[in-house]
Amino acid sequence: MDPIRTPGLPFIKMHGAGNDFVVIDSRNGAARPVTAELARAVGDRHRGVGFDQLAEITDDPQADYRLVFWNSDGTEAGACGNASRCVAALMMEALGRDEVRFATRRGLLRAVREDGQVWVNMGPPQLGWAEVPLAHATDTDRLPLEGAPAAVGMGNPHAVFFVDDAEAVPLTTRGPQVEHDPLFPQRTNVEFASLTGPDRLRMRVWERGTGVTLACGSGACATAVAAHRRGLTGRRVTLDLDGGTLVVDWREDGVWMTGPVARVFDGVLSPAWLAP
Ligand SMILES: N[C@H](CCC[C@H](N)C(=O)O)C(=O)O
Question: pTM for this structure?
């Protein structure tokens, strides 16, 4: 056997506005190699590859494919907007189509390519307290927490704070405090946003199970929805995140989102590393 080109587990490294992913294709009856332990090991930026989320593509009888999302702490995420866009771009290319339907824990989602941009419909926002989920009945537009954030579910929970200056927020202290607040029985992703122009927001994010990331698609959707509910913006919003700009459009049939997609490299996890 060639000692350098060894077989192993192939993956693709991608990012969407700096929100980075390892994509593993487990379709066609391939054994499902991804476990919480593997996700943690691959997610380690020093000893593994590093990612914000690992997206595993699997077979689904009702859709073109199914997506399973893992955080770098080994927990599963119910939704991931940027990985959904990245994988949709990959699958549109592979299938030679401008539209794909994929299954997630939340249900069937759709992505389309329009004018070279991949848009994903993340579904309608979940605005009831039990859907987010929150620990008890309360107004999701203004939670009884310091800073009165809004709670929005996008298949995963989000707490959105509107602040004068998102740049000034101490993300690494406020983020984990809110993530672990007892009001969120499944913990929460945390966004801080400030209005910078008409229908334009600056947003920074602390992700549940991952920490500070350069962008978060479901977080951008949740923030746009919360901003519109508060009368701060219209239904189509541009969000400037640390790693790039996302556009969200809250339409009749769900919250659509688009932004940049990059395929960075194709790699193979070596068998020796996989089974030391
Ligand atoms: N980066 C993702 C969201 C990951 C959310 C995850 N941290 C969770 O536990 O819900 C996005 O683009 O939507």
Answer: 0.96
Task: Render pLDDT for 36-53 as a digit per residue (tens, 0 to 9).
Answer: 999 999 999 999 999 999
Number of domains, the chain:
2
> Which one, of 107, 148, 155, lies nearest residue 131 by Cα?
155
> Which domain covers residue 154, as residue numbers?
150-258
Say what the ipTM of the complex is: 0.98
Please indicate, yes or no, if residue 68 is contained in any of the structural domains. yes
Q: Is 141 among the domain residues?
A: no
Same-domain check for residues 86 and 31: yes
Active-site amino acid positions: 80, 216
For CA atoms 103, 91, 235, 70, the dihedral sign is positive
Same domain? For 101 and 177 the reply is: no
Binding residues for substrate: 19, 53, 71, 81-82, 156, 189, 207-208, 217-218
Co-location of 201 and 265 in the same domain:
no
